[in-house]
Design a protein that fits this description.
This protein has 13 helices and no strands. It has one domain: Orthogonal Bundle (Farnesyl Diphosphate Synthase). It is an all-alpha fold.
């Protein structure tokens, strides 16, 4: 598949899989937007392959042994795509193109896949540290890869990008408490629940609701830290990221406003509201160009920095 056809395929994946990401990506410069779409398509493929979903739709989770086989296949096919030059399926071709174009470290895509292992093995989430480590694997490292394709090489700025991914994931967990419980998954720290069970059908108990709101509180310093990274991005990229920042944070604000009622459905942002937040993101981008004090990362969870090996060319 040539690059034009590959991009067309990836655009279709994003249009069906994530309206929030699609809205933010529209304002990015063409080259960054296209690479972000290609990377998204591979990430979406990994998620759907493990969960038995199609473009983020309803879960049809296969048995654990099937998931483990798929997980190992994901690792093998990702390594093959990036270390060998053989023909590969579109999701892996998309990753290969972006990873080689931006000289990404080998660890990052494999770190994402490691997050799926947590789900397959049903690892417990006893502490907020567990939730944050999982959040890095399934979202924080995606923020790092996105920043890389926007030209970021500074490790401190990549930490800020990771913070935004973590904030997004904490917000997603808070939004999807009921949906995750229906799939047998609880990402809220057990130590926060005080022995309370998460009811996948009824309204949340006071302990569950308190833990959900506490998770949103935990996300706030990560959102604040991420804003400090905008200044290091090209203006168009900063606008898209600032818009995504506002769109996702709005979900958390809606959960706070609706309280237990939010548990009955999936909180989302309307198209008209996304337009407002896109405009606000432009203002955030402009403000980020002004001299200002940087928010400290003291006390925030920090991503691992390991290998500097690159993919084979």
């Amino acid at each position: 598949m040539d690059e034009a056809a590959l991009l067309q395929w990836a655009q279709a994946q994003m249009a069906q899989g994530s309206s929030s990401f699609a809205a933010a990506a529209r304002v990015m410069p063409r080259s960054a937007r296209q690479d972000a779409i290609l990377l998204y398509a591979w990430c979406r493929h990994c998620d759907d392959m493990i969960d038995g979903q199609e473009l983020g739709g309803s879960l049809h989770e296969p048995p654990a042994e099937v998931q483990l086989m798929r997980l190992e296949a994901l690792i093998a096919e990702t390594r093959a795509a990036l270390e060998i030059n053989n023909p590969v399926a579109p999701p892996y071709q998309a990753l290969r193109l972006v990873a080689r174009r931006h000289d990404m470290p080998l660890d990052w895509p494999l770190d994402l896949i490691e997050g799926f292992r947590w789900d397959v093995e049903r690892r417990p989430f006893n502490t907020i540290g567990d939730t944050l480590r999982y959040g890095y694997h399934v979202a924080g490292v995606v923020g790092v890869m996105m920043a890389r394709l926007m030209g970021v090489r500074d490790e401190a700025v990549l930490d800020r990008a990771c913070d935004l991914g973590l904030a997004f994931q904490l917000t997603n967990i808070a939004r999807d408490v009921r949906e995750d419980a229906q799939a047998g998954r609880v990402y809220l720290p057990a130590e926060w629940l005080g022995g309370a069970e998460v009811d996948p059908e009824g309204l949340p108990s006071p302990n569950v609701m308190a833990a959900t709101l506490r998770l949103l509180d935990t996300a706030e310093p990560y959102y604040a830290s991420a804003r400090c990274g905008l200044a290091a991005l090209p203006a168009g990229c900063a606008w898209g990221i600032a818009a995504a920042h506002r769109i996702y944070r709005e979900i958390g604000q809606q959960i706070r406003k609706q309280g237990a009622v939010a548990y009955a459905g999936r909180v989302s942002t309307s198209r008209s509201r996304k337009a407002v937040l896109l405009a606000a993101g432009l203002g955030d981008m402009g403000i980020s160009r002004l001299p200002r004090a940087s928010t400290s990362r003291d006390g925030l969870w920090t991503r691992p920095v390991r290998s500097v090996d690159r993919f084979a060319l």
